[in-house]
Design goal:
GO biological process, one term: vesicle-mediated transport
Keywords: Cytoplasmic vesicle, Golgi apparatus, Membrane, Phosphoprotein, Protein transport, Transport
Structural class: alpha+beta
CATH architecture of the largest domain: Sandwich
Number of strands: 20
InterPro entries: Adaptor_comp_med_subunit, AP2_Mu_C_sf, Clathrin_mu, Clathrin_mu_CS, Longin-like_dom_sf, MHD
Distance between the termini: 52 Å
Strand content: 35-45%
Radius of gyration: 26 Å
Family: Belongs to the adaptor complexes medium subunit family.
Number of helices: 8
CATH class of the largest domain: Mainly Beta
Domain MHD: 168-370
Length: 370
């Protein structure tokens, strides 16, 4: 990538901030991005990559800001987009909300971060916890007499600092599953899937190695266990700390964790899910007078709404949007995934307590009505 730009969302706005990493793309090229984007949007031909001559614009939108990367080469598009989303993640860690106001209030830190995130078009340190060790929110107070590069940048474990100490060593594990479901008016499930993630909150001293055991179906097959209580994980994605080679060999999830909060892994299960919460609705129209709506959820809740109308002339059938449901169920996972063990190994030999919590929540959960 040669050039990166953060813009506001209006066609007439000038760029908020920019960084030219190689100098082979003219700074004026960004002026063509918003008119080109608006043109493609009007033509219903908008794509994540827009081109003008030899210049390519790779862009994403977050809140009211466009993040745009410019290049004149046949760049690795997936790498560029991964970097742009990582920029959003890092800036959000620093400023809580990434929007125009937070960028304007933190120009100095933004430029420092852009310089550290990428060098001459190549991504460098993109872990916000490491960046926060030497780019603080009081950027003008940095000690320039010392090297600004912390040991973690050059260590094999770049996501964790050495010398971390806690009086009480604990690990909190959250297994969170979101249910995406679409049910038609006749009660048939049209679409269902489970999207899960395992998030950790780590308060451990030193440089511990953690090993997480799940009721993974592939692991159970390797070790000769039964399949009754196992789960077949799909589309598994790990944090960079996980030793992928070991997982490929024997399905062991082994890692030295970052300090604090992070997502260890995510997964998907494309399985048939029975509706966890069922909603029935009945809509009755009384000509020229009123509309009554009854919504029934399972056996516990019933809601009736009565709307008095001055006049109801149109008796034609109208489109009825599906009912969207929001819920959260603690101590339960739809897939049946379980944390079988968490081993914590550290050379000092201290004892640590792992805590596990299971949560099922609604994702895109919709039930169509008659």
């Amino acid at each position: 990538m040669t050039y990166m730009m953060l813009l506001r969302g209006s066609i007439s706005d000038n760029p908020l901030i920019s960084r030219n990493y190689k100098g082979d793309v003219s700074m004026s090229e960004i002026d063509y991005f918003m008119p080109l984007l608006m043109q493609k949007e009007e033509e219903s031909a908008l794509t994540p990559l827009l081109s003008r001559g030899k210049v390519h614009f790779l862009w994403i939108k977050h809140s009211n800001i466009y993040l745009v990367a410019l290049t004149m080469k046949n760049a690795n598009a997936s790498l560029v987009y991964s970097f742009l989303y990582k920029v959003v993640e890092v800036f959000s860690e620093y400023f809580k909300e990434l929007e125009e106001e937070s960028i304007r209030d933190n120009f100095v830190i933004v430029y420092e971060l852009l310089d550290e995130l990428m060098d001459f078009g190549f991504p460098q340190t993109t872990d916000s916890k490491i960046l926060q060790e030497y780019i603080t929110q009081q950027g003008n107070k940095l000690d320039t007499g010392k090297s600004r590069v912390p040991p973690t940048v050059t260590n094999a474990v770049s996501w964790r600092s050495e010398g971390i100490k806690y009086k009480k060593n604990e690990v909190f594990i959250d297994v969170i599953e979101s249910v995406n479901l679409l049910v038609n008016a006749n009660g048939s499930v049209l679409l269902s899937e489970i999207v899960g993630s395992i998030k950790l909150k780590v308060f451990l001293s030193g440089m511990p190695e953690l090993r997480l055991g799940l009721n993974d179906r592939v692991l159970f097959e390797i070790t000769g266990r039964g399949k009754n209580k196992s789960v077949e994980l799909e589309d598994v994605k790990f944090h960079q700390c996980v030793r992928l080679s070991r997982f490929d060999n024997d399905r062991t999830i082994s890692f030295i964790p970052p300090d604090g909060d992070f997502e260890l892994m995510s997964y998907r299960l494309n399985t048939q899910v029975k509706p966890l919460i069922w909603i029935e609705s009945v809509i009755e129209k009384f000509s020229h007078s009123r509309v009554e709506i009854m919504v029934k959820g399972g056996k516990e809740y019933l809601m009736r709404a009565h709307f008095g109308l001055p006049s109801v002339e149109n008796e034609e059938l109208e489109g009825r949007p599906p009912i969207s449901v929001r819920f959260e169920i603690p101590y339960f996972t739809v897939s049946g995934i379980q944390v079988r063990y968490m081993k914590i190994i550290e050379k000092s030999g201290y004892q640590a307590l792992p805590w596990v919590r299971y949560i099922t929540q609604s994702g895109d959960y919709q039930l169509r009505t008659h």
